[in-house]
Design a protein that fits this description.
This protein has a seven-stranded mixed β-sheet, covered by helices on one side. The protein has a two-stranded parallel ribbon with strand order 1-2. A two-stranded antiparallel ribbon has the order 10-11. The protein has helices at 2-8, 30-35, 98-108, 126-129, 139-144, 152-161, 179-182, 191-205; strands spanning 15-18, 42-45, 50-53, 56-61, 77-82, 85-89, 113-116, 166-169, 209-212, 220-222, 229-231. The protein is built from eight helices and eleven strands. Strand 3 (50-53) and strand 4 (56-61) form a beta hairpin. It is globular, with a radius of gyration of 18 Å. The protein is 27% helix and 20% strand.
C-alpha cells in the first residue's frame, strides 16, 4: 500500500520488490518509483532468486493470475524461510496451471504456512489499465481479462501440492475502510466469500489450521530447531 509505505518510510531499512520487465507503461520500475520518494536501500528480486537474511532467506516465486494477460513482472510470490519455518505469501496467485507448481514444489519442498488471497471474481482489465489503452476494449474482452485470484478448486490445489500445515486467506479487502479504495462490498453470497469459506472448512476438516483473516492478527511460531519467535 503506497500510502502506508509513505508514512513508515523513516523506519524501513530495506525494500524488497520484484523486478519489472522494463519499458512498459503497465509494468513500471517500482525501484525507480520508490527511490524518488526517499527509499535508499531497494533490492529487486527475480523469480527463483534467493536473498539471504538473518535467520533464513527470501525467495521470489512465480506469480500467476491477476495480470489481465499482460506481460507484467512486478508481481511475485515470496517464500520466507525463517528459523527453519517456511512461509509462502502467495497474494492473489491464481493456480491456472497446476503443472507450474509441480516444478516449484521440487524447488521449495513442503510449506509450513500459506497465505493466499482469494478474490476470485476480480475487477475487469479497464478498472486499472483502461487509461493506458489507445482505444476502449470490447466488453467481452474486458470482462474476460480480470484481476482474479484462485477460487476454491485452484486454491486447494496449492494447499495440497505444498502439503501446507497452516493456511490463511488474507488480503481480501473486507475491512470497511478499504471500501473507499476498492469498491468491494461482500455479502454471504459473494463468490470470494463462498469459495474462501469452502477452502477454510476443507482445511479444518483435515486438521490444517485455517482462517480467513480480517483486520489484525498476530501469529506466533516456534523456530526449528531452537526456540524463537517469528511474528507474521
Amino acid at each position: 500500500m503506497f500510502e502506508t509505505l509513505l508514512q513508515i518510510r523513516h523506519k524501513i531499512k530495506t525494500l524488497i520488490m520484484p523486478r519489472s520487465r522494463g519499458g512498459c507503461l503497465e509494468d513500471p520500475s517500482l525501484k525507480l518509483v520508490f527511490q524518488n520518494i526517499g527509499f535508499d536501500n531497494i533490492v529487486e528480486i527475480d523469480e527463483l532468486e534467493t536473498l539471504n537474511i538473518a535467520g533464513g532467506s527470501i525467495t521470489g516465486l512465480p506469480f500467476m493470475g491477476e495480470h489481465c494477460d499482460l506481460n507484467i513482472g512486478t508481481k511475485t510470490a515470496h517464500l520466507i524461510d525463517l528459523e527453519g519455518k517456511k512461509f509462502l505469501l502467495a497474494a492473489d496467485t491464481n493456480n491456472i496451471e497446476p503443472a507450474l507448481y509441480e516444478h516449484v514444489y521440487r524447488f521449495t519442498g513442503d510449506i509450513d504456512v500459506l497465505f493466499l488471497g482469494m478474490e476470485c471474481d476480480g475487477a475487469p482489465m479497464s478498472w486499472l489499465y483502461g487509461p493506458l489503452l489507445t482505444r476502449p476494449l470490447e466488453r467481452r474482452m474486458d470482462q474476460s481479462r480480470r484481476f482474479n485470484g484462485s477460487n476454491y478448486e485452484r486454491g486447494i490445489g496449492i494447499v495440497n501440492r505444498f502439503n501446507c500445515k497452516d493456511v490463511y486467506v488474507y488480503a481480501m479487502g473486507q475491512e470497511p475502510w478499504l471500501t473507499y479504495a476498492l469498491s468491494l462490498r461482500y455479502t454471504d453470497e459473494s463468490n470470494p466469500i463462498i469459495h474462501s469459506n469452502k477452502l477454510v472448512e476443507d482445511c479444518r476438516s483435515r486438521g490444517i489450521e485455517s482462517e480467513r483473516l480480517f483486520g489484525k492478527k498476530e501469529i506466533i511460531y516456534n523456530a526449528k530447531p531452537r526456540t524463537s519467535r517469528a511474528a507474521v
